[in-house]
Design a protein that fits this description.
The complex is a heterodimer of chains A (about 350) and B (about 240).
Chain A lengths: L2 H28 L3 H17 L4 H18 L11 H67 L6 H31 L9 E4 H15 L5 E4 L6 E4 L1 H18 L6 E8 L2 E8 L6 H5 L15 H19 L4 E5 L5 E8 L8
Parallel strand pairs in A: 2-4
Antiparallel strand pairs in A: 1-3, 4-5, 5-7, 6-7
Chain B lengths: L6 E5 L3 H13 L3 E5 L2 H11 L3 E5 L7 H9 L6 E5 L4 H9 L4 E4 L4 H19 L7 E4 L2 E4 L4 E4 L2 E3 L3 H12 L5 E2 H8 L7 H15 L10 E4 L3 E4 L6
Parallel strand pairs in B: 1-2, 1-3, 3-4, 4-5
Antiparallel strand pairs in B: 6-7, 7-8, 8-9, 10-12, 11-12
The chains are: A alpha+beta (about 350), B alpha/beta (about 240).
Chain lengths: ~350, ~240
């Protein structure tokens, strides 16, 4: 156990026992002796409730027992276990401490199991969704390549080109999917560990936009970047993926989109990243749970783009949260959607 | 004429990827030899003395790094590492161990061919001495090493001392992916915690002085988390 936790346990025990003693002294002055045992039993109960394990409760009950016996019962300031009354109250207090301890530990364990189950369920849902999602592009790749191999002569040149095109497209989609899944495994542990290094904003954007343009040569991005040098501590692989996911999201889902804007500005000690488009925007119903990756109940699985968005955006949210930032989505009044996330930046760059 | 062709050794254990690369390279008029393990690769390397090696890092018998060290003991033959690993550390280690470049799986055929051309060209250049009159020229970019001047067309780009050193170092190693560590060692000689940040700030300033916006195609390509590379002729 950590020293901090032990200290906290001891503090709670001492504090509650102190209060109980103070109250009892008062009651004794008033001559209401009967309540004293009850007060100590209650204190022991509270101690067991608020501390981890049995030890604090049991020790407190023993201390309480001695206090009652020594201070508050006749003969005063003398230990006396011969009187059955004293013995019984001692036994009751010990029993209360142990039973409460057992119950509390049980409840805590139960909660931990519940959380673990929840994680497992999420993982299972993700796996189900993924294996289902993988099958669609694989079907295309498999059947198209089989046809090309076996019926090559029967196909005309245009058909062959078209099939090769869809093989390539589906393969690229699989690549993106796998990249995201790898990132999920990289951060989906109970202890999220992010390896941050200071990154110059320009270098990050350069790398992201270069990779994006290689994938989507015809799609222009309107870049709005701050003039000054901005340094942001981050895991650059993860943040790069977030921006790419948001950009690609706009390409695949924003109907009628002609322009994507990537804007970065600073606001206090934070850097704000905005990816916006001039497409059709996001349906109101979807807006709320857009980052939760609602994998379980997707009836409209006919369009693979939709499915990918779920995983891609929940990956984004997980990454940004792990960095201690925030991410939001909204519709613009002018039409189109805006995704916005913030990251803490370094204060002042020391130029050479 | 068989002998006029460049000889490329592929060390890759996956049969499908190997077959595709063989078709690709033979269509591009290279002579190809193949090995499916590190051990076989070493034997073929010794007997055929290839011009370029394409090396997969995950091999059944030994790690590809083993082959890399084996070749670098006594030769500068260009080695392009092929890796399914997306982790930056693997790339950096391979580059620092002497690999000239890397291509991450999955790769496009155009990408692989471009890297091979660059590797070959650089090797020939460095083998033939780097005299060239102390001038580096590539399309619009001219670097006059003696005068420490950099030009785009007729316009001089005024760089600070450090900025010039970085550009010059990259141009001397044109086509080779230079890791942060190797650039820092070449420029400052020592490295500390803030070195990479310092290098990135300088590079951002260099880009600005060239009037290039982030994401625009340029002479220097930026591999975040790994390093920089002065692009070969065919890659821009």
């Amino acid at each position: 156990m950590k020293p901090k936790k032990i200290l906290k346990g001891i503090l709670i025990s001492v504090l509650l026992l102190g209060i109980a003693t103070a109250l009892s002294t008062q009651f004794q002055k008033w001559g209401v002796q009967e309540l004293i045992t009850t007060i100590f039993v209650f204190a022991v109960f509270l101690i067991s409730l608020f501390t981890d394990g049995f030890i604090y409760g049991v020790v407190s009950s023993v201390v309480g027992m001695f206090l009652i016996n020594f201070v508050f019962t006749y003969p005063y300031f003398e230990l006396n276990f011969i009187k059955p009354r004293n013995l019984i109250s001692a036994v009751i207090m010990l029993a209360v401490a142990v039973i409460t301890g057992v119950l509390v530990t049980k409840i805590k364990r139960h909660e931990a199991i519940k959380a673990e189950n929840e994680r497992e369920r999420m993982r299972a849902n993700l796996l189900r969704a993924v294996s289902h999602d993988l099958r669609t592009p694989l079907t295309t790749i498999y059947s198209a390549s089989t046809m090309l191999k076996e019926n090559s002569e029967a196909l005309n040149k245009q058909q062959r080109t078209q099939m090769l095109g869809s093989i390539q497209e589906e393969a690229q989609w699989l690549v993106r999917m796998v990249e995201n899944l790898l990132l999920v495994t990289r951060i989906d542990n109970s202890t999220i560990k992010i390896n941050k290094t200071p990154i110059i904003l320009d270098e990050l954007i350069d790398s992201v936009v270069t990779k994006f343009s290689a994938q989507h040569p015809s799609q222009k991005i309107n870049l709005l970047l701050p003039e000054e040098i901005v340094i942001i501590p981050m895991d650059s692989i993860l943040i790069e993926q977030v921006i790419r996911n948001l950009l690609e999201n706009a390409v695949f889902h924003a109907k009628g989109m002609t322009m994507i804007t990537l804007k970065v500005y600073t606001e206090g000690d934070r850097a704000v990243f905005e990816v916006s488009d001039d497409g059709a925007g996001i349906e109101e119903g979807k807006l709320k749970k857009i980052f939760t990756g609602n994998y379980g109940d997707r009836k409209d699985t006919s369009r693979r783009e939709k499915r990918f968005a779920g995983i891609g955006l929940s990956v984004c949210a997980t990454i940004i949260k792990a960095h201690g930032g925030t991410i939001t989505a909204q519709n613009l009044e002018t039409g189109g959607a805006l995704f916005k996330f913030t990251l803490e930046k370094e204060n002042s760059p020391d130029d050479e | 004429m068989m002998n006029n062709k460049y000889k490329i050794l592929i060390i890759e254990d996956d049969r499908n990827i190997r077959n595709i690369m063989i078709s690709l390279l033979e269509t591009a008029d290279y002579q190809v030899i193949c090995a499916d393990s590190c051990g076989a690769g070493k034997t073929l390397y010794r007997s055929h003395n290839p011009d370029v090696v394409i090396l997969d890092l995950g091999l059944p018998d030994m790690d590809g790094m083993n082959f890399l060290k084996f070749v670098r003991e006594d030769s500068l033959t260009p080695i392009i590492v092929l890796s399914a690993r997306t982790d930056d550390m693997d790339k950096v280690t391979a580059l620092d161990e002497g690999a000239n470049d890397y291509v991450t799986k999955p790769f496009s055929s155009a990408e692989l061919l471009a890297r091979i051309r660059t590797a070959l060209r650089n090797y020939r250049q460095s083998a033939g001495g780097k005299a060239l009159g102390g001038v580096f020229k590539q399309r619009d970019l001219t670097i006059v090493y003696d005068a420490r001047q950099v030009f785009i067309g007729q316009n001089e780009i005024r760089l600070s001392q450090t900025e010039y050193n970085i550009v010059a170092l990259l141009s001397e190693n044109c086509g080779k992916m230079m890791t942060y560590a190797s650039i820092i060692k070449g420029i400052w000689g020592y490295s500390d915690e803030g070195s990479i940040k310092k290098l990135q700030v300088n590079m951002a300033n260099i880009r600005k002085k060239f009037g290039v916006r982030p994401g625009e195609k340029w002479y220097i390509s930026n591999e975040l988390g790994v390093g920089y590379r002065m692009n070969g002729v065919n890659e821009i």
